[in-house]
Amino acid sequence: MAPPPQFVPQMPFTTFAVDPGGIRGCLFRNTYIWLNNGGQFWFFPVFVGRNSVAGFRWFGFFWAYFGIDLNQIRSFTCF
Hints:
By secondary structure, the chain is mostly beta strands.
């Protein structure tokens, strides 16, 4: 996989919890994720379950497989 874009997008305004239907549209696309704890990173989702999403997280120089519960995600945007 190629590296993600080199910019950090602006966080979209959201008032609702992240649901599987919303993030499912980002499958196999570069996605930027903001977490409730303040973390943020590029992500390439390959699976969306009822309560979680899995894929590849960018660690600055490489992708690594990663999974996270949807309730930990504050917001996301995909390209």
